[in-house]
Each structure stands twice: as structure tokens, then as C-alpha cells.
Amino acid sequence: MSEPILEISGLSKTYAGGVKALDNADLSIRKGEIFALLGPNGAGKTTLIGAVCGLVRPSSGKIEAFGLDMARDWRAARARIGLVPQELSTDMFEKVERAVAYSRGLFGHAPDKGRIEEILRALSLWDKRDARIMELSGGMKRRVLIAKALAHEPDLLFLDEPTAGVDVELRKDMWKQIGIMRERGVTIILTTHYIEEAEEMADRVGVISKGRILMVDDKAAMMKRLGRTEAHIALAAPLTELPDAIASYPVEIEDGGMGLCYRGGDGTGRGKEEVAELTKALTRAGIDYTGIDVRESSLEEIFVGLVQDGDTGGSTDNQEAA
After folding, report:
1. Measured distance CA(204)–CA(198) in Å, rounded
2. Which of 7, 66, 69, 162 is spaced 20 to 30 Å from 127 by Cα?
3. In 3-state terms, what secondary structure has residue 308?
4. What structural domains does the chain harbor?
5. How far is 164 from 45, CA to CA, in rounded Å?
6. Cβ of 271: how many Cβ atoms within 10 Å?
């Protein structure tokens, strides 16, 4: 298992007026992974990122990055962290190349025109290098935010809703660049409303709701452990009742007796195995079937279930808009 690059322990944030945005959050991020932090609006995602990046002062708790205590060695640790914020907050009157180069110098790196050109070309911004940021489309402005975050060559990169509000083609291009960053060894933590992106890209997934981390697990393990299998079996002849041979399985008769519906595997990860056992039991009982359609839960369905189950804790409001 890779060494942790970020350790968050007992992190809490209560805003003026008593609004609790983070509630004793613990999180450990492994070096070189892509970690997806999922949660509904107001869950605490942006507050957590802001706390690590020095934009939010925690009420309590401890943050260590690269083995450094962020409270004592903030400058050294922050110089190795990149942030692509959710909001398009940048100097709109500045030219693209100059804005990206400035971000590099801001973290103490020597000028490197070659590296800036490499970043701009990778993000399809080179042709826009002399354009003012205000002249760019929304998608191009978001690319500039990514370029600024990469300019000082961070080891840990936060992407807060990086593809929100951009078209599908631009989204695919951005994810290609994220894959390249990962190949270079950059650890990436992202928040996203596009759960299919997390399902495809992330190694591990964390679910946060109302300031509390509900679960963190390897993506595949989470989907196996919390997912559900659903199978629809088309029968060659109708059934009026379940035969004893299959009565122990979680099945129901459907389609006027011409089909069986299996729903199981909850919490066991054995759904597909049970479906295979069920079909064998049907064959042994002399019940013919003409087709079978098996479907596994998506990460989105698991996420929704976790949030609904954990929806009994504290609350946040618009202090945390992610």
C-alpha cells in the first residue's frame, strides 16, 4: 500500500452562527492515487479542500501533508499543493500566459517559459496565450485555472468540480490531462457531480454528507460490498407460484408469470454467484428459461443510498456551496 501523502484527523469547522460545515472528519490520502470525494451540495467538500489549502481556518483537528503539520509548516506544504477551484476566480484582465507564469513565481519557482508552454499546449491554450482571460469561453477559463494550478508542479492536486459547466468534448479532454498528471506521479483529489467520472477514474471513493465522512473505500470494493444485483429471467412457460426449489432465493414472479426477478447480493457481493446458482436450480427443477438480463448497481446508486442512510447528522448551509 502506498504511503499517505495527506492525513486529516478530527477536522471540524463551525462558522459564525453555529453552522457546522465539517464534523470531526478523518481522511487519509495515498501517494499517487486518484481519490474522488462525493457528496451533495452543502456536504462540506469545498470547506475540507479550503482547510487543506489554507483558505479556511479549521475550528479543530489536524492536517498533515507530506509529513508536515499544516499549522506549523504551512508555506512548505502549500508550495507542493495545487488547487483548481470551483469558482472562476482569476484576474480577468490578465493575459493567459502571464497569469500562468505568475502562479509559478507565486510559489517560489524560477521562471521557465518552456514548462509554461508545455502546460498551455497540453491544455489547448497555446493559441490563446496572448488573449485576456475575460475574452475566453467558460470552458477555456476553466482550463486556465488548471494551468495555473499546474504551473508550480504540485505533488498534490485538488480539483473542485473541474468539469462543471463545460461541454462533453472539453470534459473528455480535461480527463485525458488528468490521466497524464497521474502518470507523472501527481496525487489527485477531486470532487464531482458527474459520478460516472469517479466511477471510471478514481482508485478510491469517499462519501461526505453534512460535514461527516460516511465511508472511504476502494472503488471496486465499495461497489462489491454495497452494490445490489438485479436479474430478470424470461421463462419458457408461465409460473403461478414459486417452486420450492427456488423459494429460498430473493425472487419474485413478474410479467404475468412469464418472468422471474432476482434482487440480492446486498452487502455480500455475491449477487452474480447467486444468480448462477438460481439458474442451475431452475434447470434441476425442469423450469426452462429463454433469456436472462443481469445488472449491477452503479456507484451513483450506492452514493445516493449512503447519503440517504446518513442523513441524520448535523447540517450545513450556503457557507459551503459544493
Report:
1. 9
2. 162
3. helix
4. 4-80+154-223+303-309 (3.40.50.300), 229-296 (3.30.70)
5. 15
6. 24
On whether the CB atoms of residues 260 and 251 are closer than 8 A, the answer is: yes
39-57 b/e (C-beta count within 10 Å ≥ 16 → b): bbebbbbbbbbbbbbeebe
Indicate the SS3 state at residue 230: strand
Closest CA to 284 of 243, 238, 234, 239: 243
Check residues 160 and 27 and name the one with the higher pLDDT.
27
Gyration radius from the chain CA atoms: 24
Cell of 299: 456507484
The full length of the chain comes to: 322
Question: How far is Cα 189 from Cα 83, in angstroms, rounded to an integer?
Answer: 10
For residue range 97-134, list pLDDT tens digits in order. Answer: 999 999 888 888 889 999 999 999 988 899 999 999 99
Count the helices and strands in the chain (H runs, E runs). Answer: 10, 14
Could you give the 3-state DSSP secondary structure of residue 121?
helix
The string of pLDDT tens digits covering residues 245-274 is 898 999 999 999 999 999 888 766 678 888
Cα–Cα dist 27/7, whole Å: 6
Spatial strand order in the sheet of 204-209: 81-84, 156-160, 187-191, 34-38, 204-209, 212-218
Distance CA(248)–CA(259), nearest Å, equals: 17
